[in-house]
Design goal:
Mean pLDDT: 77
Shape: extended
Oligomer: single chain
């Protein structure tokens, strides 16, 4: 199993975690199982030549909170926009109208 877990092909898509070592704690098992995913994601983007976008600075006063209505469902869908940007289905937006 260790042979399958140690990839020499550039990308490891299998993660073996000893259940006995984490049987006492489901959160520990989940953390151990998902441990390699961030590194694998970064490695994939680097191999594809995809660079991270520049950091956006947002001041606290620029954050607009809308009142929460308990009976209203929250839309968590994500769509791909015209420029391959991820668009939130719930209508979230960034308003930089406060910038001077």
């Amino acid at each position: 199993m260790q042979y399958l877990d140690d990839s020499t092909l550039g990308r490891d898509i299998v993660q073996f975690v000893p259940l006995v070592a984490h049987a006492h704690s489901p959160p520990s098992l989940a953390a151990a199982t998902l441990d390699e995913i961030p590194k694998q994601l970064v490695q994939f983007f680097q191999q594809q030549g995809i660079q991270p976008m520049s950091k956006i600075q947002i001041e606290e006063e620029e954050i607009i909170l809308q009142p929460y209505l308990e009976e209203e469902e929250i839309d968590l869908t994500l769509d791909l926009g015209n420029d391959d940007e991820i668009v939130m289905g719930g209508g979230g937006y960034y308003d930089n109208g406060y910038k001077k």
